[in-house]
């Protein structure tokens, strides 16, 4: 379950969203090419720009958003051991929860009772009425955010070109800047290996945010292979 907060013309509206409803919102947002970014808690922020007519032929742009926050944050619970259990459940299509034994069966493998109890209590795994077990949407979103955690490098600022291997005397400036050059360049980096160079840190942060949004959109498209 998710806490849903909608930002609209009249302000904000909050409510509850089931996993199925949240998935529908994400799929619809992808079809409409809205921006989606997964959060480390296991939620998502959907944002877009709405356009409406103002006075005469004036068109007013208004920012809209839907924030999904899971009832139980998934990110902090994603330890290495937990990730191995989740991969096991996800890799086997017919994973099954056995309440009598308090285990999850994944083919020939079984997840022990204590680990099973943690997965269920933290909302990392869901179970339907037939006992079928699956990795929840909140967990999947948290994994996307975890796998695409980004940083930006500190601009070098005033530096001596020789320190960077550049054969230049630099600028002849007062205030201890003689023989130095100024660089505001920054690089956006991601855990997945993505990197992009930017003229300054503001641009680098934008590139990092765009990458996270693209990664989230790719995940949502994987939920419905028929999407472009």
Radius of gyration: 24 Å
Shape: flat
Determine the mean pLDDT: 87
Q: In order across it, which strands form the biggest sheet?
A: 2-1-5-4-3
Helix content: 25-40%
What this model shows, in words?
The protein contains 5 helices and 15 strands. By secondary structure, the chain is an alpha+beta fold. The chain has a 5-stranded antiparallel β-sheet.
How do the helices and strands line up, and which of them pair or pack?
Elements: E1 2-8, E2 11-17, H1 19-31, E3 35-38, E4 44-53, E5 59-70, H2 80-91, E6 96-98, E7 103-106, E8 109-111, H3 113-121, E9 125-127, E10 133-135, H4 137-147, E11 150-152, E12 157-159, E13 181-183, E14 186-190, E15 195-198, H5 201-223
Antiparallel strand pairs: 1-2, 1-5, 3-4, 4-5, 6-7, 7-8, 9-10, 11-14, 12-13, 14-15
Question: What does this entry show, briefly?
Answer:
Helix content is 30%, strand content 32%. With 228 residues, the protein is α+β, with helices and mostly antiparallel strands.
Entry keywords:
alpha+beta; five-stranded antiparallel sheet; three-stranded antiparallel sheet; 5 helices; flat
């Amino acid at each position: 379950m998710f806490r849903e907060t909608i930002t609209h013309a009249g302000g904000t509206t909050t409510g509850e969203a089931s996993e199925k409803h949240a998935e529908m919102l994400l799929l619809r947002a992808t079809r409409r090419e809205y921006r989606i970014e997964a959060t480390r808690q296991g939620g998502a922020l959907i944002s877009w720009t709405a356009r409406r007519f103002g006075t005469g032929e004036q068109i007013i742009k208004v920012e809209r958003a839907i924030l999904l926050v899971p009832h139980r944050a998934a990110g902090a619970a994603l330890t290495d051991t937990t990730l191995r259990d989740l991969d096991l459940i996800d890799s086997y299509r017919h994973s099954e929860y056995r309440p009598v034994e308090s285990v999850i069966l994944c083919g020939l493998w079984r997840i022990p009772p204590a680990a099973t109890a943690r997965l269920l209590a933290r909302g990392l795994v869901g179970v339907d009425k037939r006992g079928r077990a699956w990795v929840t949407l909140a967990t999947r979103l948290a994994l996307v955010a975890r796998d695409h955690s980004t940083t930006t490098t500190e601009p070098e600022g005033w530096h001596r070109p020789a320190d960077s291997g550049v054969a230049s005397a630099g600028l002849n400036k007062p205030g201890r800047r003689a023989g130095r050059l100024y660089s505001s360049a920054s690089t956006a980096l991601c855990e997945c290996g993505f990197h992009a160079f930017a003229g300054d840190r503001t641009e680098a942060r934008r590139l990092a945010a765009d990458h996270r949004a693209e990664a989230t959109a790719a995940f949502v498209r994987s939920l419905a292979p028929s999407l472009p």
